[in-house]
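Work through this:
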Amino acid sequence: MESQMQFLVCIVIALAGRSDSYNWVDAPKGVVPLGTYEFELYHEVHHFCEARDDEGRLHTGTFTDKEKICMYVNVKEKTVESSAKFQVLTLNPNEKAVWKHTEKEIPENAVPCDDKESEECYLGMAFYSDGLCHEAPGKVFLKKHRIFTHIGPKLAICPYFNYLTIQDMSK
């Protein structure tokens, strides 16, 4: 009985010390809550978002301050879709977002997509490479070694990408 109690205490302590470094928060009518992660690309402020399709499946995408709709790639259908109802990625005050490039493995603290696609995915950014790819945020699928993104309403798939990672600056 005592060993079971010690085990439970260890689990509680471990869970209490654990906190996700990011959250998904409602953005009613595209209003950006405090702490929303943003990045500038092509002179526009972008944010990561999550929205549900007509069947209720969750998809990760992006929106700009100008458009106020979450645009995402439906990887299964290979289409670009959108939703006016979505959540945005927010960071805790002691967190910093960092882009990391790796080719063979997922970097530590990479931000996973909550999409239930064919395999796990992570938030990322395609980068320009000899005209093959344009800089654009999207979803990285390591097994496919591709990032699925969009340029406006057009689907783009690229083999050159960085992962979005979160660093705890309080350590």
User: Anything to note?
Assistant: The helical segments are 2-17. The two ends are 36 Å apart (CA to CA).
